Protein backbone atom coordinates (compact mmCIF):
# COMPACT_ATOMS: atom_id res chain seq x y z
CA UNK A 1 0.00 0.00 0.00
CA UNK A 2 1.32 3.46 -0.92
CA UNK A 3 1.92 6.02 1.78
CA UNK A 4 0.15 9.30 1.04
CA UNK A 5 -0.27 12.70 2.65
CA UNK A 6 -3.37 14.76 3.24
CA UNK A 7 -3.23 17.24 0.35
CA UNK A 8 -4.84 19.97 2.49
CA UNK A 9 -2.41 19.60 5.38
CA UNK A 10 0.08 22.46 5.90
CA UNK A 11 2.99 20.00 5.72
CA UNK A 12 1.94 18.56 2.35
CA UNK A 13 1.32 21.99 0.82
CA UNK A 14 4.67 23.25 2.09
CA UNK A 15 6.50 20.24 0.68
CA UNK A 16 4.63 20.63 -2.60
CA UNK A 17 5.79 24.22 -2.96
CA UNK A 18 9.38 23.06 -2.47
CA UNK A 19 9.10 20.12 -4.88
CA UNK A 20 6.63 21.28 -7.55
CA UNK A 21 9.39 21.49 -10.13
CA UNK A 22 10.35 17.88 -9.42
CA UNK A 23 8.87 15.13 -11.55
CA UNK A 24 6.10 12.68 -10.77
CA UNK A 25 6.48 9.26 -12.36
CA UNK A 26 3.41 7.60 -13.87
CA UNK A 27 2.91 4.36 -15.74
CA UNK A 28 0.28 2.44 -17.67
CA UNK A 29 0.17 -1.11 -18.95
CA UNK A 30 -1.43 -0.95 -22.38
CA UNK A 31 -2.94 -3.74 -24.44
CA UNK A 32 -5.45 -4.37 -27.18
CA UNK A 33 -8.14 -5.19 -24.62
CA UNK A 34 -7.88 -1.98 -22.61
CA UNK A 35 -6.87 0.53 -25.29
CA UNK A 36 -10.03 0.80 -27.42
CA UNK A 37 -9.08 3.66 -29.71
CA UNK A 38 -10.50 6.85 -28.25
CA UNK A 39 -9.24 8.96 -31.13
CA UNK A 40 -10.07 9.65 -34.80
CA UNK A 41 -7.19 8.61 -37.03
CA UNK A 42 -7.98 11.21 -39.70
CA UNK A 43 -7.25 13.98 -37.20
CA UNK A 44 -3.59 13.01 -36.99
CA UNK A 45 -0.68 13.54 -39.34
CA UNK A 46 2.89 12.37 -38.71
CA UNK A 47 5.55 15.05 -38.73
CA UNK A 48 8.40 15.04 -41.22
CA UNK A 49 11.45 16.12 -39.14
CA UNK A 50 13.35 16.97 -42.32
CA UNK A 51 10.73 19.61 -43.15
CA UNK A 52 11.71 22.97 -41.57
CA UNK A 53 8.09 24.14 -41.65
CA UNK A 54 7.01 21.14 -39.55
CA UNK A 55 9.76 21.92 -37.03
CA UNK A 56 8.64 25.56 -36.90
CA UNK A 57 5.00 24.56 -36.40
CA UNK A 58 5.96 22.17 -33.59
CA UNK A 59 8.03 24.91 -31.96
CA UNK A 60 5.16 27.39 -32.14
CA UNK A 61 2.67 24.95 -30.60
CA UNK A 62 4.98 23.85 -27.78
CA UNK A 63 6.27 27.33 -26.94
CA UNK A 64 2.67 28.58 -26.79
CA UNK A 65 1.42 25.67 -24.67
CA UNK A 66 4.23 25.72 -22.08
CA UNK A 67 5.06 28.91 -20.21
CA UNK A 68 8.58 27.63 -19.55
CA UNK A 69 9.34 26.55 -23.14
CA UNK A 70 11.33 28.72 -25.53
CA UNK A 71 12.77 26.34 -28.11
CA UNK A 72 14.80 27.66 -31.00
CA UNK A 73 14.56 25.86 -34.33
CA UNK A 74 17.91 24.14 -33.71
CA UNK A 75 16.89 23.03 -30.22
CA UNK A 76 13.56 21.74 -31.49
CA UNK A 77 15.22 19.75 -34.26
CA UNK A 78 17.75 18.23 -31.85
CA UNK A 79 15.04 17.18 -29.40
CA UNK A 80 12.80 15.68 -32.07
CA UNK A 81 15.55 13.73 -33.81
CA UNK A 82 17.68 12.66 -30.86
CA UNK A 83 15.71 12.80 -27.61
CA UNK A 84 17.87 11.78 -24.61
CA UNK A 85 15.32 9.26 -23.26
CA UNK A 86 12.79 8.45 -26.01
CA UNK A 87 14.48 7.23 -29.19
CA UNK A 88 13.79 6.68 -32.01
CA UNK A 89 10.79 8.94 -31.63
CA UNK A 90 7.94 9.89 -33.91
CA UNK A 91 5.88 13.06 -33.67
CA UNK A 92 2.27 13.59 -34.72
CA UNK A 93 0.19 16.71 -35.18
CA UNK A 94 -3.49 16.92 -34.27
CA UNK A 95 -5.59 18.66 -36.92
CA UNK A 96 -8.49 20.91 -36.00
CA UNK A 97 -10.41 22.42 -38.90
CA UNK A 98 -7.50 21.43 -41.11
CA UNK A 99 -4.92 23.30 -39.01
CA UNK A 100 -2.23 21.86 -36.74
CA UNK A 101 -3.43 22.58 -33.21
CA UNK A 102 -1.62 20.07 -30.99
CA UNK A 103 1.27 17.63 -30.98
CA UNK A 104 2.68 14.59 -29.19
CA UNK A 105 5.97 12.72 -29.56
CA UNK A 106 6.33 9.04 -28.67
CA UNK A 107 8.65 6.08 -28.99
CA UNK A 108 10.57 3.41 -27.09
CA UNK A 109 12.67 4.35 -24.09
CA UNK A 110 16.34 3.95 -24.98
CA UNK A 111 17.16 1.66 -22.04
CA UNK A 112 14.18 -0.65 -22.57
CA UNK A 113 12.71 -1.31 -26.00
CA UNK A 114 9.52 -2.86 -24.61
CA UNK A 115 8.69 0.30 -22.64
CA UNK A 116 7.60 3.50 -24.31
CA UNK A 117 7.33 7.13 -23.39
CA UNK A 118 5.97 10.46 -24.58
CA UNK A 119 7.36 13.96 -24.54
CA UNK A 120 6.04 17.46 -25.13
CA UNK A 121 2.31 16.76 -25.25
CA UNK A 122 1.11 20.20 -26.27
CA UNK A 123 -2.18 21.84 -27.26
CA UNK A 124 -2.49 25.45 -28.37
CA UNK A 125 -3.93 27.48 -25.44
CA UNK A 126 -7.13 28.40 -27.28
CA UNK A 127 -7.93 24.71 -27.81
CA UNK A 128 -7.12 23.38 -24.34
CA UNK A 129 -9.71 21.76 -22.06
CA UNK A 130 -11.54 20.24 -25.03
CA UNK A 131 -10.35 16.63 -24.64
CA UNK A 132 -7.62 16.93 -27.27
CA UNK A 133 -4.89 15.95 -24.82
CA UNK A 134 -6.67 12.66 -24.10
CA UNK A 135 -6.97 11.98 -27.84
CA UNK A 136 -3.23 12.60 -28.17
CA UNK A 137 -2.54 10.02 -25.46
CA UNK A 138 -4.84 7.43 -27.05
CA UNK A 139 -3.30 7.92 -30.46
CA UNK A 140 0.27 7.63 -29.15
CA UNK A 141 -0.62 4.54 -27.11
CA UNK A 142 -1.98 2.87 -30.26
CA UNK A 143 1.21 3.67 -32.16
CA UNK A 144 3.36 2.18 -29.39
CA UNK A 145 1.14 -0.87 -29.18
CA UNK A 146 1.58 -1.46 -32.92
CA UNK A 147 5.33 -1.67 -32.20
CA UNK A 148 4.80 -4.31 -29.47
CA UNK A 149 5.36 -1.83 -26.66
CA UNK A 150 3.03 -2.71 -23.79
CA UNK A 151 4.11 -0.36 -20.99
CA UNK A 152 4.28 3.43 -20.96
CA UNK A 153 6.24 5.50 -18.47
CA UNK A 154 5.63 9.21 -18.10
CA UNK A 155 7.60 11.93 -16.30
CA UNK A 156 5.53 15.02 -15.43
CA UNK A 157 6.42 17.97 -13.22
CA UNK A 158 4.32 18.09 -10.07
CA UNK A 159 3.32 21.69 -10.82
CA UNK A 160 1.48 20.53 -13.94
CA UNK A 161 -1.57 19.33 -12.03
CA UNK A 162 -3.79 19.62 -15.11
CA UNK A 163 -1.52 17.26 -17.05
CA UNK A 164 -1.38 14.83 -14.13
CA UNK A 165 -5.19 14.75 -13.92
CA UNK A 166 -5.46 14.17 -17.68
CA UNK A 167 -3.15 11.17 -17.37
CA UNK A 168 -5.02 9.81 -14.34
CA UNK A 169 -8.29 9.97 -16.28
CA UNK A 170 -6.61 8.10 -19.14
CA UNK A 171 -5.65 5.23 -16.81
CA UNK A 172 -2.14 6.25 -15.71
CA UNK A 173 -1.14 5.68 -12.11
CA UNK A 174 1.68 6.82 -9.83
CA UNK A 175 4.64 4.47 -10.17
CA UNK A 176 4.53 1.90 -7.39
CA UNK A 177 8.31 1.82 -7.01
CA UNK A 178 11.13 3.78 -8.62
CA UNK A 179 13.12 0.55 -8.82
CA UNK A 180 10.88 -0.90 -11.55
CA UNK A 181 11.26 2.06 -13.90
CA UNK A 182 13.05 1.49 -17.19
CA UNK A 183 14.03 5.15 -17.53
CA UNK A 184 16.37 5.92 -14.63
CA UNK A 185 19.99 7.05 -14.19
CA UNK A 186 22.74 4.56 -14.96
CA UNK A 187 25.01 5.83 -12.19
CA UNK A 188 24.48 3.90 -8.94
CA UNK A 189 24.79 7.05 -6.83
CA UNK A 190 22.27 9.05 -8.87
CA UNK A 191 19.96 6.05 -9.06
CA UNK A 192 20.03 5.54 -5.29
CA UNK A 193 19.44 9.23 -4.58
CA UNK A 194 16.55 9.37 -7.03
CA UNK A 195 14.99 6.24 -5.53
CA UNK A 196 15.14 7.58 -1.97
CA UNK A 197 13.75 10.96 -3.02
CA UNK A 198 10.92 9.33 -4.94
CA UNK A 199 9.90 6.85 -2.25
CA UNK A 200 10.03 9.31 0.67
CA UNK A 201 8.79 12.51 -0.92
CA UNK A 202 7.72 12.54 -4.57
CA UNK A 203 5.51 9.45 -4.45
CA UNK A 204 3.52 10.53 -1.35
CA UNK A 205 2.88 13.97 -2.88
CA UNK A 206 1.93 12.42 -6.23
CA UNK A 207 -0.48 10.10 -4.43
CA UNK A 208 -1.98 13.07 -2.58
CA UNK A 209 -2.66 14.81 -5.90
CA UNK A 210 -4.03 11.54 -7.32
CA UNK A 211 -6.46 11.14 -4.42
CA UNK A 212 -7.48 14.80 -4.07
CA UNK A 213 -7.96 15.72 -7.72
CA UNK A 214 -8.92 12.37 -9.25
CA UNK A 215 -10.15 9.64 -6.90
CA UNK A 216 -12.13 12.00 -4.66
CA UNK A 217 -13.84 13.58 -7.68
CA UNK A 218 -15.10 10.18 -8.82
CA UNK A 219 -16.91 9.41 -5.57
Textual characterization of the structure:
The chain is of the alpha+beta class and 219 residues long. Strands 2-3-4-5-6-1-7 form a 7-stranded mixed sheet. The mean pLDDT is 92. The relative contact order is 0.20. Helix 1 crosses helix 6 (188-218). The protein folds into 2 domains: 1-27 and 176-219, no CATH class; 31-149, Aminopeptidase (3-Layer(aba) Sandwich), CATH 3.40.630.30. The protein contains 6 helices and 7 strands; from the N terminus they run H-E-E-H-H-E-E-E-H-E-H-E-H. The chain is globular, with a radius of gyration of 17 Å.
**CATH fold-level topology of the largest domain:** Aminopeptidase
Q: What would you report as the Rg, rounded to the nearest angstrom?
A: 17 Å
Overall helicity: 25-40%
Question: What is the oligomeric state here?
Answer: single chain
Classified by CATH, the class of the largest domain is Alpha Beta
Q: What is the SS-derived class? A: alpha+beta
> What are the segments in which pLDDT stays under 50 over at least 5 consecutive residues?
none
CATH architecture designation of the largest domain: 3-Layer(aba) Sandwich
- The ordered string of helix (H) and strand (E) elements is HEEHHEEEHEHEH
- Main beta-sheet strand count, sense and barrel state: 7 strands, mixed
Please state how the strands of the largest beta sheet are arranged side by side. 2-3-4-5-6-1-7
Distance between the termini: 20 Å
Amino acid sequence: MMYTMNWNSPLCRKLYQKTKNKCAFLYKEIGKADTPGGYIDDKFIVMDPSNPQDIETWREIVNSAYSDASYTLDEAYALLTNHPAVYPSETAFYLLDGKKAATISYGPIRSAGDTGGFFRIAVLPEHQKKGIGTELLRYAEAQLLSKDISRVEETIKLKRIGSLIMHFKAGYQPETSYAVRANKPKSFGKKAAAMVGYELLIKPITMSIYREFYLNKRT
